[in-house]
Amino acid sequence: MKVLLVNGSPHKEGCTYTALSEVAETLQKEGIETEFFWIGNKPIGGCIGCGACRKQGLDHCVFGGDAVTEFQAKVTAEHYDGFIFGSPVHFGGAAGSMASFLDRVFYCCREPFYLKPAGLVISARRAGTTATWDQLNKYFGLLQMPIITSQYWNMVHGNHPEEVRQDAEGMQTMRTLGRNMAWFLKCREAGEKAGVPMPEREATIHTNFIR
């Protein structure tokens, strides 16, 4: 089993990475393989709602050449059993690049994430963590990804990696998140071996409230 950890910070080995690393180390101790993906620090344009990807039946954004299409190609070509997404807090919410990244990743590339567990890691100096928690977990709910929680909201505090490591409760929360993810993956594997079928899938119905 393998979990992909996505670092949504413009700093490759900053506070968000420090928190994700604690989760990864715990997963490895539980026998789960891990891999990191960094979205980078180049500008990431948001989804413009052109719908070209869906009209053409694509599993990737038509605007290529950035971290979004690189990530979509990766999760389509390789198999991952679970995902952990990490974001810093910028101005009381998720980093803009991370929000743009997730908007475009999930708009047309959905099958690799279907019923795959997702965890969220948030890093902040002080505030904005719960607003970011509310913001980003909505993506996972929309894609039918079981959301893995911890003993507290999945957040750490610190202005640089060393301060994050001093956040004893935050680091423990990351370890609990890793163990909970590992437990869920093992339960799913046991269910599959026992012959528990995947749920029936209906054709999606879209409605609005204009009459």
Compressed to H and E, one letter per element, the order equals: EHEHHEEHEHEEHH
Which percent range describes the beta-strand content? Answer: 15-25%
Q: Characterize the main sheet.
A: 7 strands, mixed
- Rounded mean pLDDT is 96
Mass-distribution shape: globular
Summarize the amount of helix as a percent range.
40-55%
Q: Which structural class matches the secondary elements? A: alpha/beta
Uncertain runs are: none
Oligomer: single chain
Radius of gyration: 17 Å
Separation, N- and C-terminal Cα atoms: 48 Å
Q: How many strand segments?
A: 7
Specify the number of helices.
7
Helices and strands in order:
Elements lengths: L1 E6 L7 H15 L3 E6 L13 H4 L11 H11 L4 E9 L2 E2 L1 H13 L9 E7 L4 H14 L4 E2 L6 E3 L3 H6 L1 H26 L18
Parallel strand pairs: 1-2, 1-3, 3-5, 5-6, 5-7
Antiparallel strand pairs: 3-4
Helix pairs in contact: 1-7, 3-4
